[in-house]
Design a protein that fits this description.
Elements: H1 3-26, H2 34-57, H3 63-78, H4 83-99
Helix pairs in contact: 3-4
């Protein structure tokens, strides 16, 4: 194995370890700040949206079919439909708009 690959793996292992270890060492007491609590509460949703939205917009050949699928998914999710209904309807909408 080349030495540079080993160094890359070690740096990534150290980075992953630090990301997981630092919050446990820095926040020993219960967090009382309302701002910090709300900030940490919404981080997973923001990260998921940041990873998912570009994938949705570039998932089809045309932007209009991707936007149609996204619009259908947003409307159905606000109507409290189940995940399978939302995903199937969004796929069908993107497919139908892609046909035209």
């Amino acid at each position: 194995m080349r030495i540079d690959v080993l160094i890359y793996v070690l740096v990534m292992a150290l980075t992953t370890y630090l990301i997981r270890m630092l919050p446990m060492t820095l926040f020993r007491k219960k967090i009382k700040s309302r701002f910090a609590k709300s900030f940490f509460y919404y981080i997973p949703y923001a990260v998921l949206a940041a990873m998912t939205l570009p994938a949705i917009l570039y998932s089809t050949e045309g932007i209009y079919s991707a936007l149609a699928g996204l619009a259908v998914a947003v409307v159905l999710s606000f109507c409290n439909c189940s995940l399978i209904v939302v995903s199937v309807a969004a796929c069908v909408a993107a497919f139908l708009v892609g046909l035209f």
